[in-house]
MerR family transcriptional regulator
Amino acid sequence: MSYSVGQVAGFAGVTVRTLHHYDEIGLLRPGARSAAGHRRYDDADLDRLQRILFYRELGFPLEEVAVLLDDPDIDPQAHLRRQYQLLSDRIERLRKMAAAVERAMEARKMGINLTPEEKFEVFGDFDPDQYQEEVERRWGNTEEYRESQRRAASYTKEDWKRIQEEGDDINSRFVALMGAGTPPGSEAAMGLAEEHRRWICRSHYECGHELHTCLGRMYVSDHRFTENIDKAGPGLAVYLRDAILANAERHGYRVSDGS
């Protein structure tokens, strides 16, 4: 059984010109010629072409491919083993590259769809990407973090402005309660803390009462959060934490002093 140059080109997904070139440089000479002088390829030629294309796909120059294929000390089985190992190594490299790209995609934080000007319009002088490395290091392996990244990737400037306005409204109402001398354990403050938790669930990730208490404590223990939250009103971070803890207890979550 023999095949024309056009048939082989179709089988292999290469051009006729490529096969002509391989013939001209001695890399793949057809096993026979027709009476009219046309190239005819047999099964052995197709096997050699397959090995050539394997090595070419892996980036080997034609000169090196020729040396590898014509080495008398390497039998066809050895070629297959070598190609298998090279392909396995390449697959592993590509897998690692894909994982790195995926991590980079997930690591993009708030404002992924925003220009620098739009970020400033939405967040003011707060840069949502400022602590990205720390955020990924601390919470990157959690489902909540992954969920927040999935949502953030789909949000537009209008979405972020709405979310920011909702958060600012909650903060302003907390400040009003503080100004009125309302205790953080009051029904009003606990109700607003529950609204704060549901705002997080709606906007960023599923936030149960236990996680909400962790956030509340962090608002006070990390001075960066405290300073940012207290911009709305001095003492808001502490008041917010206490209201969150009281609300969690009201919903059956046992809050201990050291937890």
